[in-house]
Design brief:
By secondary structure, the protein is mainly beta. The chain contains no helices and 13 strands. Strands 2, 4, 5, 6, 9, 12 and 13 form a 7-stranded mixed sheet that branches. Strands 1-3-8-7 form a 4-stranded antiparallel sheet, with no helix packed on it. A hairpin with a 4-residue loop joins strand 7 and strand 8. The protein is globular, with a radius of gyration of 13 Å. The termini are far apart.
Amino acid sequence: EVQLVESGGGLVQPGGSLRLSCAASGFTFSTADMTWVRQAPGKGLERVSTIYRYGATYYKDSVKGRFTISRDNSKNTLYLQMNSLKTEDTAVYYCAARVYCDGDVCDRDSGYWGQGTQVTVSS
């Protein structure tokens, strides 16, 4: 059974930092493209970042220079370091494996998804 378990969300002030983690099991993590997707209140799913199985990365324009995606294949774990957080980063953040995305729009019915972790940026 595939499992993706996110952790690390919480409440942070604007300008602060958080590090999200996603523990994966039930599939060969090292061969999977891994993606962070977020959903803000009242909005659709949007791709934040992808790290491909060969190590290349993709970032949504609005998070470039602030967020860093990484993976540790020895621990089957995906990370998202988020710095200089803004109120508009407030959302539920999902870890997803082998998900199909067209640009920044991802198909909720594709791949495997975690349950999500809430990130709230507020003063």
